[in-house]
Amino acid sequence: MVSFNLNNREISVDADASTPLLWIIRNHVGLTGTKYGCGAGLCGACTVHIDGTAQRACQTEVGSVAGKKVVTIEGLSPNSSHPLQKAWIAEEVPQCGYCQSGQIMKAAELLANNSKPSRADIIAHMDGNICRCGTYHRIIAAIERVASGG
Predict the structure, then answer these.
(1) I want to staple 15 with a disulfide (CB 3.0 to 4.6 A). Which of 19, 25, 128, 149 is the partner?
(2) CB-based burial of residue 139 (10 Å sphere; 0-12 exposed, 13-18 middle, 19+ buried)?
């Protein structure tokens, strides 16, 4: 059994400690907002926060989160009211939408640590989260919208 806090709820899962956190979140808990992209930690679709730091759930063993706080896109805001989620809609960011929960979680980490990032800060921080549809300019605009209070 591995116990940790998931979206402000204490949970225990009966799984091998080496099981990727992604599969615990999706298959054991049933939260499907965190996506499987590449399975190698390269695309960012599976990004979650572990004790406030954005990490790739596909490369994180569930045993390593024992006693820690994990937040998924569902925990960021269960009703899509987070400012980033609103900005994503206002800027019409998603096309296919598959990578967007990972993009939002990575952006949330940035804004939690730097509420007024420059465009260069945004680009540097978001580097490594891949959008196959290429909506990077809209992703940046959405983050800028939140940073400017809009």
Answers:
(1) 19
(2) buried
Sort strands 2-6 and 69-71 into parallel, antiparallel or unpaired.
Answer: parallel
3-state secondary structure of 69: strand
Amino acid identity for residue 100 in this structure? Q
pTM of this structure:
0.95
20-55 pLDDT, tens digit each = 999 999 999 999 999 999 999 999 999 999 999 999
Fill in the amino acid letter for 57. A
State how far the Cα of 80 lies from the Cα of 71, in Å rounded to an integer.
14
Query: What is the distance between the alpha carbons of residues 70 and 10, in angstroms, rounded to a whole number?
Result: 10
